[in-house]
Amino acid sequence: MSLTAIGVIAVSIPIATLLYAYVGYPFLLWILTLARRAAARTTCSEEDSGEWPTVSVSLPAYNEEGAIAGALDALLAVDYPADRFQVLVTSDASRDRTDEIVAGYADRGVELLRLAERSGKTGAENAAVEHLRGDIIINTDASIRILPHSIKPLVSALSDPGVGVASGRDISVGAERTEAGLGETGYVGYEMWVRSLESRLGSIIGASGCFYATRRELFAIPVPETLSRDFAAVLKARLAGYRSVHVSDAVCVVPRTGSAGAEYRRKVRTMARGLGTLWHYGALMNPVRYRGFALALISHKLCRWLVPPFLPLGVIGLALLAVDVPVARVLLAAAAALLVVGWGVTRWPESRKTPPRPLAILGFAVSANLAGIAAWANVLRHGGGTAAWEPTRRGPVRHV
Length: 400
Fold this sequence. Notes:
Blueprint: H1 3-33, H2 46-49, E1 55-61, H3 68-76, E2 85-91, H4 98-103, E3 110-114, H5 120-128, E4 136-140, E5 145-146, H6 151-157, E6 163-173, H7 179-201, E7 211-215, H8 216-219, H9 229-239, E8 243-255, H10 260-280, H11 287-321, H12 326-346, H13 357-382
Parallel strand pairs: 1-2, 1-4, 2-3, 6-8
Antiparallel strand pairs: 4-7, 5-8, 6-7
Helix pairs in contact: 1-7, 1-11, 7-13, 10-13, 11-12, 11-13, 12-13
C-alpha cells in the first residue's frame, strides 16, 4: 500500500467518526422520529397520579460554602408537597463552612450526613442510600439551581412503569467572559436536543449529572466510586429492563465555568470517568442482545469519545499526503494554524473583552479535544478516574 493510500485512510478515519457522531447519528434519530410519536408521557397532574410519591433529593457536597445555601434555597422553594419531600446533603468530609451552613437549614427539614473521610462524589452518593426515604431519588449538585416547577414533571415521567430514570433539561447561564462559557452554552443546547430525539425513540443514553431522578431500587444498586453515577444510572436501568427519558419541562440552571482552565479540567475528569463507566458496562454495547440501545450507546458515547484520539492520526495522514499532494500541505498548515489560534483563545485573559464568537467556538473545540486526549491517556495509564473529586467552581446564577 502506498503512502498516499495510507494517508487517505488516516485522514478519513477521524473525519468519518466526527461526522457520524455529531451529524450523522442525530440526523438518523431525527429521521426515525418523523414516523414515531414520543414513547413516554413526561407530564401528569396530581389527579392523574392520585398522590405524589415520596421524593428524596441527594446532594453530595465538598467545600461548597459559597454555593450550598443558594442550592438549598432553590430546593426548598420547589412546587412539591413538603411532607413528601426530603433533602439530604452528604458532606464529603468538607473542610470549610459547608456543614455549618447546611446545619442552619435543619429547622426547615434539610438533613446533613457528614462522611469522616473523603470518598468522592459517587462514594458520597453510595453512602447516602440508607438515609434516603423516598420512592424516587433525585440527584443534583450544589452549584445547580432547580427551578420551582421542575420537580413534578421529572417525577411524573416515572409514573410510566417502563421508565427507570428521568433526566432534566440543563440551561447554561452566566459567566460569559470566556470561550468556555460561550462554547459550553452551544454544546449543552445541542446535547439536550439529541437526548430529546433519543427519548422519543425509546431511551436516552446518559442522564444529566446536574438533575435526574431514579427509582429507589435502581439508585440502591451501588456504583464503583471511580465511575460516573449519572451515566451508570441509565446503564443500570437498561440492564434491569427500564427505559430512561429526557424531560424538557424539568429545568435546572447550570452556571458556566469561570475560566477555560476549570472547564478543561472538568472535561478531562468527566470523560475519564465516563470511559471507565462505559468499560464497566461494556456488555451493553452488544447489538445482538441490546439492539437499538447498543447502537445508540456506541454512536452517542463511544464514537464521540473516539474523535479526540483519532485527530492526531488525521494529522499524520495529512503529513503523509503532503509529500506528494500540494493541497494536503495547505490543509496541514491550516490545521496547525487553527490549533495554535485555538490554544491561544483557551489562554484568553478573563480581564479582556470576550473573544469574537468564531474564535470562542474554535477555542472551545480545541480545549475539548485536548481534554479528550488527556482523558484517554488517563484511562490507559491508570484505568480511569479517581474517587476523589474537586467540584467545578461555577459562577453565580444571574438570569435564565
